[in-house]
Design a protein that fits this description.
The protein is α/β, with parallel strands linked by helices and about 120 residues long. It has 5 helices and 5 strands, in the order E-H-E-H-E-H-E-H-E-H. It has a single domain, classed as Response regulator (Rossmann fold).
Length: about 120
């Protein structure tokens, strides 16, 4: 039985947020702690990142460049990229660390498979 894992979403597309929230709710062992739609001021949400077990991260988000989050997310155990960007175009800091990829559009089946992999690794 996996423990309760705190999830945070960094995403600026309303439909993608809605879907990911729906999918998280399918798993009683996942707890959504928040959604960040703008990364202009990373210091404002740094405490939320510190309490996160799973980060659902879009690579193109309003307010800044995703590389500004590199140091803030290094300690997060599970990074799940939720992007339409091809894997070969991921930023180096993502490529160089363990992560999972959910290519948009994300289906419930893709999400279930990804979370099963996370639970198996935990």
């Amino acid at each position: 039985m996996p423990p309760n894992l705190n999830c945070l979403i960094i995403e600026d597309e309303p439909l993608a947020i809605k879907k990911i929230v729906e999918y998280i709710r399918m798993f009683p062992d996942l707890s959504l702690t928040g959604t960040i739609e703008d990364i202009e001021d990373p210091a404002s949400f740094a405490p939320d990142l510190q309490a996160t077990d799973i980060l659902f991260l879009d690579l193109v988000v309003s307010g800044g460049i995703i590389e500004t989050l590199e140091e803030l997310i290094v300690e997060i155990p599970f990074l799940i990229i939720t992007s339409a960007i091809c894997k070969r175009d991921y930023p180096t800091f993502v490529k160089e660390r363990s992560h999972y990829a959910l290519q948009k559009p994300i289906s419930p089946e893709m999400f279930r498979k990804c979370i099963a992999e996370v639970f198996n690794m935990h």
